[in-house]
Specification:
654 residues, Phosphorylase Kinase, domain 1, Transferase(Phosphotransferase), domain 1, Phosphatase 2c, domain 1, 3 domains, six-stranded antiparallel sheet, five-stranded antiparallel sheet, 31% helix, binds adenosine-5'-triphosphate, binds manganese (II) ion, protein phosphatase, metal ion binding
């Protein structure tokens, strides 16, 4: 827009000058239309300026302090010029009208986009937005300015969803900060004066611990807020809440925290919002960048130069990955004939379930048949295990629990047959919940075949039954849930006399402690494993390097075998790998767990922890899960511990 500039182009006091931004306008050149928003210190109107739609920010000016502030604000804005900053088009700095005219950004604020529209950006969009904002903030910092109010509500979006950092109402020159801080604290006892009072609840969650402690604001405090913002963008969750309520509606009080409690927790206990998950497309390095940004020690937070570099390299990696996509043949699903287990389960399954903490202990009625697996000859020299088992499952840092498991010692009243299983759900908990209900019955019904074959068939049939159920569910709900493709990993240990069979699909794991050492009883099925990758491709699936690792496309699944995941069948097979182990007196215990444990605790550590724990299987399970949580496991954690020989809870077995 070329607007006529009337010389001398200064404000009425002469303190604000600009070569390109008109600073006094004739009353006929603008009209205010309807208000867009009422901020805490201004009303923002849609306006027409020189025939063009713009946004007019009209600050509330009630004291001479406010007027001084307006002029400082305007001086600062006149010195800004960066494509990532909300653009000042003109200002009117004469009584009685004091107004800023900004470019009108049509798509509202990032906060509304995330929490009112419930927009979930792709990783590309997250990287694009964070990089542009980082560059804008870098420009501010390099010009000696700190923003002091970085939060999604102050990020405006245009139609292309490009972000613009806005609201410089609290921005200050670094050189003036000391004085500003002193002034504010003296006048109100709070970091930013009246602003603090009005906005504390909404903005507290973006404030760095040093600000909450009423120490100096530095540019590193902006970095902190920026870290919180990136995480909010990834999770879609308002910091410290799971509420996706209207952006304005959330208050700290609704989160069951009082303002003081939250402040105390952020400052003293290092409380931070729940970190986004590495899940499908989120690169680990982005998460560690967030953590560096919101670190407690301002001097250890990265500078914006570093943040920009890091984001640029992530952005490039993302580009490369997407260009390096391998195209391979898609093949139609050939195992379409699902076995019919209709009706029975439908009522029990919550298809959109996000899961709850479920610990299933199932006891099936006595059905003859399982005995067939026990050796018919009563071999008195055969080693006899003495089984005691326990489990512990926790949602961990996740919002929802998608793991399920069951313990079935003495299955069907058979003294020497025991079954234990863990299912780790993804894309919802439905597959995990279904499998935990169905698998035992299927294994039981297959007892006329060999034990290993029964396990294998039971997995395959659980998968077919689940997909069949899902299809009928979809038909009953028509198209609305066609994008629903829940799946789960499954690991089952079946102990028959002294033979231990472990069947596995996915990345849960079982280990055996034999004479003090660990033995793996299962192997993880992940796209990082070359054999699995080749198998998936051979079977018509697509493997791509997405974000940070090999994944099955298009869903971005890391596991290459699973129950469910009907969009990736048959390549992501439900056929388990089965190990068979003859147990002897050397065998002390079996540990099964979902990847939430194994991600952060290795086999030898697991054995060490059990060695140091009272020999009670539930306690051991709980200790392992707790240890994993303390080590920062970001996932659901389920652990089953089975002692295979007699132990007293009071005794240490080593
Ligand atoms: N250029 C613009 N284009 C579109 N909408 C805008 C623009 N500027 C501001 N708004 C809207 O007005 C709201 C308030 O603007 P701004 O944040 O600048 O005011 P404020 O009074 O400082 O608010 P607060 O301090 O409460 O965040 C924004 O959240 C946004 O919804
Ligand atoms: Mn604002
Ligand atoms: Mn503001």
């Amino acid at each position: 827009m070329v607007m006529e500039i009337v010389e001398p182009n200064t404000c009425i006091r002469g303190c604000c000058t600009s070569e390109s931004i008109p600073l006094h306008l004739s009353p006929s050149s603008f009209t205010l239309r309807s208000p867009i928003a009422r901020g805490s210190e201004s009303v923002v109107y849609e306006a027409i300026l020189d025939g063009r739609r713009v946004a007019a920010k009209k600050p509330v000016l009630s004291t001479s302090d406010d007027l001084d502030k307006f002029h400082r604000h305007l001086q600062l804005l006149c010195n800004l010029d960066h494509p990532g900053l909300a653009k000042l088009l003109a200002a009117h700095a004469k009584p009685p009208n004091y107004m800023f005219f900004f470019e009108l950004y049509e798509s509202g604020t990032l906060a509304e986009k995330l929490h009112v529209e419930e927009w979930s950006p792709s990783i590309d969009q997250v990287l694009m937005i964070t990089l542009q904002l980082a560059k804008a903030l870098q420009n501010l910092h390099n010009n000696g300015i700190v923003h002091r109010d970085v939060k999604p509500a102050n990020v405006l979006l245009d139609e292309k969803l490009s972000p613009y950092l806005a609201d410089f109402g609290l921005a200050e020159y670094k050189k003036d900060l000391r004085e500003v801080n002193l002034h504010n604290w003296r006048s109100s006892g709070k970091p930013t004066g009246g602003f603090y009072k009005k906005n504390m609840v909404g903005t507290l969650i973006y404030m760095a611990p040093e600000i909450l402690r009423k120490e100096m604001f530095t540019e590193k405090s902006d970095i902190y807020s920026f870290g919180i913002l990136i995480n909010e963008l990834l999770t879609g969750v308002v910091p410290y809440t799971d509420l996706r309520a209207e952006a304005q509606a959330h208050t700290v009080l609704e989160m069951n925290y009082t303002e003081q409690q939250l402040t105390a927790a952020i400052v003293s206990s290092g409380l931070r919002p729940a970190l986004a998950e590495t899940g499908f497309h989120v690169p680990k390095s982005l998460l560690s960048l967030i953590q560096k940004c919101w670190g407690a020690d301002p001097s250890k937070r990265p500078s914006l130069d570093n943040v920009v570099l890091e984001l640029e390299s992530l952005w490039e990696q993302e580009r490369e990955k997407q260009q390096g996509q391998t195209n391979s043949i898609s093949r139609s699903d050939k195992d379409g004939e699902a076995i019919k287990i209709t009706g029975e389960y439908r009522d029990d399954i919550n298809w959109s379930s996000q899961g709850q903490c479920l610990s299933k202990k199932l006891f099936l009625s006595t059905v003859p048949g399982l005995k067939m697996w026990s050796s018919s000859t009563d071999d008195s020299s055969r080693y006899v295990t003495r089984v005691s088992c326990g489990s512990f499952a926790t949602c961990g840092r996740r919002e929802s629990m998608e793991d399920t498991h069951f313990l079935m010692p003495h299955m069907c009243n058979e003294e020497n047959i025991h079954l234990f299983a863990i299912f780790d759900g993804h894309r919802g908990a439905a597959a995990a919940e279904f499998s935990a209900q169905v698998l035992p019955g299927l294994i039981q019904s297959l007892s006329s075949t060999s034990t290993g074959e029964a396990l294998s068939q039971a997995f395959i049939r659980t998968d077919l039954a689940f997909r069949h159920e899902l299809d009928s569910h979809r038909q009953s709900k028509r198209v609305s849930q066609k994008d629903l493709h829940p799946g789960c990993t499954a690991i089952a240990s079946l102990l028959v006399d002294n033979k231990l069979f472990v069947a596995n699909v996915g990345d849960s794991r079982a280990i055996l402690c034999r004479a003090g050492h660990s033995f793996a009883l299962s192997k993880a099925h992940l796209a990082t494993c070359i054999e699995e990758r080749n198998r998936v491709i051979r079977e018509g699936g697509r493997i791509e390097w997405l974000v940070d690792t090999w994944r099955v496309s298009p869903a971005g699944l890391q596991v290459t075998r699973s129950i469910g995941d009907d969009d990736l069948k048959p390549a992501v097979t439900a056929e388990p790998e089965i190990s068979e182990t003859i147990l002897s007196a050397d065998d002390e215990f079996l540990v099964m767990a979902s990847d939430g444990l194994w991600d952060v605790v290795n086999d030898e550590e697991v054995i060490g922890i059990i060695r140091d724990t009272v020999k009670e299987p539930s306690m051991c399970s709980k200790r392992l899960a707790t240890e994993a949580a303390e080590r920062g496991s970001g996932d659901n954690i389920t652990v089953i511990v089975v002692f295979l020989r007699l132990v007293s809870t009071a005794e240490r077995i080593y």
